Amino acid sequence: MTPPPAAPHTGAGRPDARVRMVDVAQRAGVGTITVSRVLRTPERVSPEVRRRVLAAIQATGYVPNLAAGTLKSQRSRVVASIVPTLRNTIFAETVDGLADGLRAQGLQLLIASSGYSVEAEEEILLNLLGQQPVAVVLTGTAHAPPVRALLRSRALPVVETWDLSDDPIDLAVGFSNFEAARSMTLALATRGYRRIAFAGAPPQREHRAAQRLEGYRQAMAELGRSAHTVTLDDLGVTFASGESAVRGLLAGPLAPDVVFFANDVAAFGAAQACVRLGVAVPTRMAIAGFGDFELAGASNPPLTTVRIPGEHIGRTAARLIIERLAASRGAGEAQAAGAAGTAQAVSGRSVDLGFEIVFRESA
Amino acid sequence: MTPPPAAPHTGAGRPDARVRMVDVAQRAGVGTITVSRVLRTPERVSPEVRRRVLAAIQATGYVPNLAAGTLKSQRSRVVASIVPTLRNTIFAETVDGLADGLRAQGLQLLIASSGYSVEAEEEILLNLLGQQPVAVVLTGTAHAPPVRALLRSRALPVVETWDLSDDPIDLAVGFSNFEAARSMTLALATRGYRRIAFAGAPPQREHRAAQRLEGYRQAMAELGRSAHTVTLDDLGVTFASGESAVRGLLAGPLAPDVVFFANDVAAFGAAQACVRLGVAVPTRMAIAGFGDFELAGASNPPLTTVRIPGEHIGRTAARLIIERLAASRGAGEAQAAGAAGTAQAVSGRSVDLGFEIVFRESA
DNA sequence: GTGAAAGCGCTAACAC
DNA sequence: GTGTTAGCGCTTTCAC
Predict the structure, then answer these.
(1) CA-nearest residue of chain B to A129?
(2) What's the pLDDT score for residue B88?
(3) Which nucleotide is nearest to A62 (CA to C1')?
(4) N or C: which end of chain B has fewer CB within 10 A?
(5) Residues A324, A262 share a domain
(6) Cα–Cα distance for residue pair A301/A282, rounded to 1 Å
(7) Are the beta carbons of B17 and A64 separated by less than 8 Å?
(8) Does the residue B13 lie in any domain?
(9) Are strands A135-139 and A158-161 parallel, antiparallel or unpaired?
């Protein structure tokens, strides 16, 4: 019954996926470790041998089995990342920046999306951790309690993005969503707007939107005005959510003279709806967004918004990971001896990349 | 709520990520294989034992080392995918659909972006294959020659997306870029447009854009008209590229009465530029796009475009992979005996998901 | 339904 | 600069 398919031979003609390091080694007339070294630390192999080995790799079409390497060395070349969604350009930018920075070091990105769910994040993380990633990148600072515990117990660089934190799991890189929203609100007031409304995703479903809401509230309190908030459909990430919000606002009593959306997508949808409805922007109703997506500057009217360094966040996360990895390789033993405490000692960095209020024509 | 004690456990001492299957097995008073079975085929373990093992897993915070499992079983739970970029929403949609469909089967997505480079794709693929993926998803059908050979030599489901193919590496799911562009061009002619121009990315740099260009050319030939083509900057994926194209066209002699962009992003940029320049759309110059990105319907004027089933492509790719995986597991022995030839036998499927011409106000 | 032993393919540690 | 040996943590096979 059991067929003997595992052809026990060397480069016998046909290109086979089952070429192992031994096969390459035999063909090149060296030991397997030399093949391994040619792949990982070529400078430690003499040019002549290196040439022969590379030729053998070419000839056999050898592809190293990373599962074996990872198992033995206890170190993969994979970084795991969880994002709420890839459909939102702004997260895609961060992921792109991250992947770019990582690739330079030969690190692969393993991506999963949580659909904005904290519970899904936890489950996904367990899956991801099984792949033995060398580092983990999360979006936001709001996680299920086991997530913190799980990650802290491992001596593993963890970067939380898109937000700051007083107490990051390990590292954080982002900006203050609270301050950004507060600044925009105050800036709108300075521009002369009287009734400033805020429209964002349900705070309990989207932590970052919740912080923006708080920033807005704080600013309104400072201004001595009363807050006027609207909750967006669809987590505020659709154009339709913006349109529906603006329709509601226009229909109600005391329509605001400016609406600050926690998301450019919704803001754009709102602005385009106004144009269609014949509502002058910004004179009858002004609109501000958040994110500075590419379309913000290209649309009519161009959107006033908060510019966020999306790609920079990704690149910075990559840099932090690489630094941390280099450090722990150097410190190696010392760190292992220090056990749990050590990770803590090097922890606690939160990098603030800031934001920028960009006034265009919509407000 | 989850039981709070994340750290407390056996006499092992410190909270450590190094919990192995043996540790769990000992704690539950079973052999390691039973733990493995609880994780992989729980129905083959008695409820009582299963309960004990699950409790031990909880208590220890055990996370299986997938590298070991993959090495031994020669089968990972990872699907590798290469996309040109994640910044373009349309690819992100496909990836999202793919990830969703895969997750349902407990498969993880390993993503890399090639930056539209065929050479990069090859290098990345080698890296990805080392992770022992169970399947590979590529974008497009234009690949470096070694890529075909490499993938064909492995008994591995391969799905090429976003295009059709007479001779796919294995499976293909998409639509005819050629036919889509041809249809739109003919439809524009039917609508009464006389001078129909086409604007796309440099054909040698973007295969799909090249096919759209050919579809346009074919249609123009059928109509007995002469083609008028413009090459976009930045692979046509920026708003600015659309603006610059439209400016060039307006400045030149014999400005077209409609421009068909191979990409909605450029089309949107062009339309907004027209609005800003006071060029009436569609009366003085009409604009058509390709892709039906979310913003196409929400902008002013709403964009006439070709609707592409982006997410559907991803979901279908996932389904094809899952079917193929199930089949090869069932056929297991037979297929192994058949060796290289077998993969070929089940190959060659190209699924056409079609497209749709959507007329809105811009043309 | 459960277990014991063997070994997947690589690399760390130590020889030479 | 290069080779030998051992073993990473699982799952496969075959017993029971």
Answers:
(1) B63
(2) 84
(3) C9
(4) N
(5) no
(6) 9
(7) no
(8) no
(9) parallel
